[in-house]
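Researcher: Batch entry, complex prediction.
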Amino acid sequence: MVSPAIALAFIPFVFSLLIRYRHYFWLFYRAVLVRCLRDYLTGIPKEDRAFQYIMTHAIPGDPLHILETFDQWSYHCEYLSNLGPQKAKILERLIYEKAPLTVLELGTYCGYATIVMAQALPLGARLCTVEMDARKASVAEKVIRLAGFDDDMVEQVVGPSEEVIPQLKEKYRLFQVDFVFMDHWKRCYLRDLQLLEAHDLLPEGATILADNVIFPGAPHFLQYVKACGKYKWRIHRTSLQYFRGIRDGMAQITYTGLQ
Ligand code: CA
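Model: Structure tokens for the complex:
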């Protein structure tokens, strides 16, 4: 049995851990514990609960109001790992700056970043968004259409990215992508970047923006981008969506076409 003296000696250590990692404990509480409890009590998945809120509070056909309503839900009701307003500004600014005509999004989730991009794209641009989870894709489809974007502008593809990317040219008539937004499984970033290269989908000057490269992180992806000589890169330092206390970053990389 541990003596009281030793147990007392550990108290300051436990307190310092609690204080140091309080933001991560709070994230675990909101993103895991509260979600599990509400899933159990309501029998409705969290993305569908969020959509019910969007349906009753957001103005249809108003993309910015739909984004604001998502943020209200995520700040005040339940945590949802949407892009969030801070990162949305970085993404939106880049879309305005690059004015891409073809955009590929990997990881639609609930359609938040899809709407951020779609409302900033130039006329005639096309956005193809890929989500492997059929239930989340169904929520995203409803959100995107509620925001007023039709199938000609935003095409949704349901399937794993490693199967969709090789089919982009023949099946989806997307011959090159000027802008790629990656926000799916972080361990797939490197594989999918190399798939885009292998299928000759990146024109010279193409921009790839990858979210969460600091938290939870994508070290192999960053290592490759920095070492392969094919990309110029920079990190936009920011914080995790809806959690200012947790540092995160988005990697902006530009394909130089050099081998
Ligand atoms: Ca993300």
